[in-house]
Amino acid sequence: MKEKKQNVENETSQAESLDNSSRRGFLGHLTKGAIAAAAVGAVGAKPFLDEKSSEVAAQKAKLLPSTLARAIAARDYRINTAIDNFNETYIGPRPDNGDEALYASQSYFASYTKGLPHHNNGEVDPPAYQALLTAVNSGNPADFNAIPRGANPFRGQVSPQSGFAFDLEGKDAFSYIQPPAPAFASREEAAEIAENYWMALLRDVPFNTYATNPIAIDAAADLTLFGADFKGPKVGGVVTPNTLFRGNTPGDVTGHWMSQFWFLDANFGSNGISQQIRTVHGLADGGQDYMTDFDSWLAVQQGAVQGPDIYDTGHLRYMRNGRDLGQWVHIDVLFQGYFQAFLVLAGMGAPLDAGNPYNGSANQVGFATFGGPHLATLLCEVSTRALHAVWNQKWLVHRRLRPEVFAERCDRASRGIINYPVHPDILTSLNSGTRLGRYFNTANKLLPMAFPEGSPLHPAYGAGHATVADACTTILKAWFDGNFVIQNPVIPDATGQNLVPFVGPPLTVRGELNKIASNVAFGRNIAGVHWRSDATQSMLLGEQIAIDILQDQRASYNEDFDGFTFVKFDGTTITV
User: Where are the domains of the chain?
Assistant: First the structure.
């Protein structure tokens, strides 16, 4: 026992003696050594502020030969990675848009209140909302169980405690910050709800006919009038039918509205996966929009569900319009689209990122690391971290109301029932015979919803689908050569039953990955459940979460690996 204890002390002494050496000498070997990467330290939990402690500890651990050394290394890898993240963590206020405090004395009409008891005027019972605030501020499970339910309690609030969960990699959910959402009375909010109205009007119109569709032409003209407060893509300051409802990332406005990853062949092992989906009927075929009268709208705010969906049972279809895409994002498995994109890329033999350590190897291939299983599971892995972070934003910071509620406020204000302080520009559009009012000249101006239940029972900002979309597509962009041009692209015909060749500019892996992320994020907007800024800001959040996880994992590999290099959604290049 004495000899064993002496060996342990010698090994520990070896590690500790390295504390006095220059850590900068290790920076040329950032990620080498399996133990190196699995070991963020063998030096204890000391925060190294000038270099990453995980990198230093990894190098130190290489010098420790025994199983004990490996155990020390594994322990300290986790400890010091946490220290690295702590040293880089944003610690400060996370501001919201101020609406909750501003309108607290007016029944919180500008905040998320769905599923709580409401009065007949469509506003929440204030004590119920205050119970919600008590729960999110305390984090006490008993307080969440005490949140009142609406008059029709068929649905529960969705995972309001998940933002308190800890994760073992990446930064803590509380360390992320999203800028405040547009304020209730702002012109930007008015522009965003105008886009939601136009999306509802165009749900059944095929994307590839927008250029000649009169409603799409009117939509582009109307959104242009909001000027800089409408944040969608423009050409020379003008919204065009081609830029309508698209995202802002590089590649979004190139080619067809929908990404190629919705249409190209995908094989899940030996199983061929059809990219056709079961969708719902459009209005002309016996389908319907929901919550288009005040009574049904109020019932849904209380927690009731209408429905069920009216499925098109006759055919499976490739997604061709907003209603198809809305149904896909209604019931998808959250990382599903990006897993299918991975299968498409693997099947077409898309080249890997130049940083993959097995590129050009004569005697090795990637598998458990830097191979297919590694990538496939990583797509699922980042999704849970993304959900924790964005649910933290939703419930604990912003509590933004859903578009279906803001539209009801616009309806009441436009008819002089309640003088809600919505921006006058949206009322002008809704009451004008040449703008939205041309199509919303009926008894009310509620937002027609694609889902029977309307939006889900959690706040709007940030958006879960958008956050997961960009977390997953960031992993795919890190893994594959983004400049690779996709061969033989296709698009669906007007029926969605056939694919025809796409004729247009070259489509790259990077651009189509950006596009599938935007398609999913904006598909939720087309369904009426999210805002443009929910999508765009949450995409940035998801990207950062994926980058943080890739950075944490970089030190864990034995291979000589200098990092993945890819183009971010803002067009800048990063190596992680």
Answer: 2-87, 187-575
For domain 187-575, which CATH number applies: 2.60.40.10, 3.40.980.10, 3.40.630.30, 1.10.606.10? 1.10.606.10
Q: Which residues contact 570 (CB under 8 A, 6 or more apart)?
A: 249, 540
Phi-psi region of 513 (alpha: psi -120 to 50; beta: other; left: phi over 0): alpha
* pTM (predicted TM-score): 0.89
Of 118, 330, 423, 458, which one is the catalytic site residue? 458
Q: Per residue in 356-393, pLDDT tens?
A: 999 989 999 999 999 999 999 999 999 999 999 999 99
Answer whether 246's CB lies under 8 Å from 252's CB.
yes
Output the CA angle 395-396-402, nearest 5 degrees.
35
Three-state DSSP class for 268? Answer: strand
Sorted by sequence, the CB contacts under 8 Å of residue 184 that are 6+ apart come out as: 97, 99, 103, 110, 401, 406, 409, 421, 422
281: tokens are: 């009927």
The token duo for 215 is 């409603």
DSSP β-ladder status, 573-575 and 565-567 = antiparallel
Which stretches of the chain drop beneath a pLDDT of 70? 1-65, 153
Contact 94, 177 (CB under 8 A): yes
- Other beta carbons within 10 angstroms of residue 126's beta carbon come to 16
**CA–CA separation, 340 and 271 (whole Å):** 12
**Residue 488 DSSP label:** S
pLDDT value of position 59 = 59
Respond yes or no: is residue 465 known to be catalytic: yes
One-letter identity of residue 58: A
Tell me if 149 sits within 8 A of 138, measured CB to CB: no
Query: Which residue blocks in 302-371 are alpha helix, DSSP H?
Result: 322-331, 336-348
Both tokens assigned to 66: 């025994």
- Measured between alpha carbons, how far is 405 from 407 in angstroms, rounded to an integer? 5
Confidence at residue 62, expressed as pLDDT on a 0 to 100 scale: 57
Question: Which entry of 118, 330, 423, 465 is annotated as an active-site residue?
Answer: 465
| 458 assigned to active site | yes
